[in-house]
Design goal:
single chain; 261 residues; alpha/beta; seven-stranded parallel beta sheet; five-stranded mixed beta sheet; 10 helices; 23% strand; elongated
């Protein structure tokens, strides 16, 4: 087992760049996860290149050395340097990024997101997509980075369970869905049918599209949708948080599918 004691070590600097930079994560093909539970959960689905943990954590959890091919014992000072949280547990793992989806599966169920920038919302939506049996997430128009520390934490490891694809804009997204014959259901407040009146699901699957936290979906996205739905609400409520609205829709379409079986 190697030891990493200095906060100024080049390896520590490289890991900090990986933690902070989406570009660095894309170029190296890796991402850094923090926390005992999160590292364990992700390691069930994705290969870990390296594990970093303090002497205390390795003593209390010797099984951690089995999570990765290589383990580094780090000082408390290094743990604080690597941490993205106020109080670190002293456990980090460097994982391989899974390859994005090249094609969508006909009949698949996907969560689609347009310009969802808040990492907490993205993570919460990933967690809901995983919980309700959606197989992948389609990101377009500069969403938050899938592998950022805040998304990883909010998603509780869901990034490892779901496949993902990225598109430059909603036109590219719609084109990919049409190629797989998957209908697009967009969440909007205007020119939309109430959720309970939405057309019945078919074997073609579906993609549920959620928009930006502040502005919702663009007019272009709404125009490209096969079905536009709204969640019934009291008249004095303007809108719902993106993660809440998305979770309601994902649960709704999952329950419809189960009822049809």
């Amino acid at each position: 087992m190697q030891r990493l004691q200095s906060r100024t070590a080049e390896k520590v600097k490289a890991l900090c760049r990986l933690r902070d930079s989406a570009k660095e994560r894309a170029e190296t093909g890796g991402f850094l996860a923090e926390g005992l539970r999160l590292c364990r959960d992700i390691a069930q689905y994705l290969p870990a290149r390296e594990l970093y943990a303090t002497e205390k954590m390795l003593s209390e959890h010797p099984e951690l050395t089995n999570l990765a091919a290589q383990t580094f014992e780090i000082s408390d000072a290094v743990a604080e340097k690597l941490s993205d949280t106020k109080t670190t547990q002293g456990v980090f793992a460097l994982f391989e990024r899974p390859a994005p989806l090249e094609t969508l599966r006909s009949g698949g169920r996907y969560l689609a997101l347009e310009h969802v920038q808040d990492p907490a919302n993205l993570g919460a939506l990933l967690r809901s997509a995983s919980a309700f049996g959606f197989e992948g997430v389609l990101l377009c128009s500069h969403c938050a980075d899938w592998f950022s520390p805040k998304v990883l934490r909010a998603g509780m490891g869901a990034v490892a369970k779901l496949r993902y694809a990225c598109y430059d804009d909603v036109n590219e997204l719609a084109k990919a869905l049409r190629a797989a014959n998957i209908p697009l259901y967009a969440a909007a407040l205007e020119r939309a049918v109430s959720l309970e009146q939405a057309p019945a699901l078919t074997d073609a699957g579906l993609a549920v599209l959620i928009g930006n936290e502040g502005n919702g979906l663009t007019d272009e996205a709404v125009a490209l949708a096969d079905v536009t739905v709204r969640i019934p609400m009291m008249p004095n409520v303007e809108s719902l948080n993106a993660a809440v609205a998305g979770s309601i829709l994902l649960w709704h379409f999952r329950s419809l599918e189960e009822a049809a079986q």
